[in-house]
């Protein structure tokens, strides 16, 4: 959309006059006692999971639709979304007695499709990606005279999200900083434009997932641009290009942007559960992950509360298996190591004694040769990185060969679960990490595209109930076949990385 000419004061006026509370709830602001004690700071959480659709997206969708004329509502609205925006538009249309069409990618899980249909919207499955669905929604809107409800890049949508800031000012007497998750930037734009035009000394800090930090990239470059493939772990913020208007406002009003990795997000999900017994979706816990980074690096003289926006809680239960496995690494209460030990009786016992009074939480081993064995192990930590470095240095001093795999995603997501070992003969193997859509037929599509061109030498994937599955795959490829392999991979049109040089793979599976 083209950039608007609305000033900060005009946005402030628009937010204050938003008439959304006949369907939107004023959500509670709760203190996270355990986290507050840990950092010696007052940590508060804005609970947007209390909305009927368990997400803040209802605010912007309803604010936009409230601004439409009777004639526009009579014709109907259309939106493209595979997530919370879809439910926000559907519920708003139900409230206003308006026809709504929601365009979703064909890869959208049935659970989300059914949730939108239950709210009375007509779902159209079109395109393999959000971009294709959005392009179709635009053309359909023009063809049928429908009003397009954008997910974030629209002044009325931004104003609707900004009502959160208005609530916060009335709920907390003294605020030092507000932490806001960023996908397309609508929430961050709305909150920051309100706060900075009313109480500019309050910091507003955006938080992005490292794998989809499109706003930070846009600000660094000076304009929005497509960063390409993004991680879908925090699917609610998996946006490859920031909006034009949201970029304008975020660049002007945000104090800074923090980025967080998946392990830090998982740890924040656990913190929310420990303090509230609520289960956030990954993007819903993103702001708290950024708050924790800030709190660790700040002194104890912060004058005022630190507030994180819990933006949503639409998470599938089985996703929590992965979260539980990763949150200890995110909080640095677990270290993961590859250690080479002598292939002798009693070597495991000696290793346990050599690491001292620490708890071994995982130990995986397979006979490799008669002299040396390589083990995959995880160790409980009480003092984070400092303790992990002490363990590694101590083991090296005792003659062990040690590799730190704590932050190696291939090791954590795949290698630790794989059976087998090194191939019995030399093969020209190349290893790739793919993201498959979590839908029926994605594996068949992979194999049909592969046909009989290459032999698969290694394959591992685990269903996590995220939008995409992480798939590790090896191919037997002679050097003169490499070009053909890349043509095949490009034809698949799945996000991928060449991880042939990955340390965990080289040590345990190569």
Give the SSE map:
Blueprint: H1 8-16, E1 29-31, H2 33-39, E2 43-47, H3 57-66, H4 70-75, E3 77-80, H5 84-96, E4 100-104, H6 110-118, E5 122-125, H7 130-144, E6 147-148, H8 155-171, E7 175-181, H9 186-198, E8 203-209, H10 214-221, H11 244-253, E9 256-260, H12 262-276, H13 282-297, E10 305-310, H14 319-330, E11 334-342, H15 347-354, E12 360-365, E13 372-380, H16 384-397, E14 401-404, H17 409-413, E15 429-437, H18 442-450, E16 455-461, E17 468-476, H19 482-492, E18 496-498, H20 503-508
Parallel strand pairs: 2-10, 3-4, 3-6, 4-5, 7-8, 7-10, 8-9
Antiparallel strand pairs: 1-2, 11-13, 11-14, 12-13, 15-17, 15-18, 16-17
Helix pairs in contact: 1-8, 1-9, 3-5, 3-8, 8-9, 9-11, 12-13, 12-14
Structure description:
The protein has 20 helices and 18 strands. By secondary structure, it is an alpha/beta fold. The chain has four domains: 8-55 and 157-327, Rossmann fold (3-Layer(aba) Sandwich); 58-148, Rossmann fold; 332-407, Alpha-Beta Plaits (2-Layer Sandwich), CATH 3.30.70.260; 426-508, 2-Layer Sandwich (Alpha-Beta Plaits). The strands form four sheets. A six-stranded mixed β-sheet has the order 1-2-10-7-8-9, sandwiched between helices. A four-stranded parallel β-sheet has the order 5-4-3-6, with helices on both faces. A hairpin with a 6-residue loop joins β16 (455-461) and β17 (468-476). α12 packs across α14. The radius of gyration is 25 Å and the shape is globular.
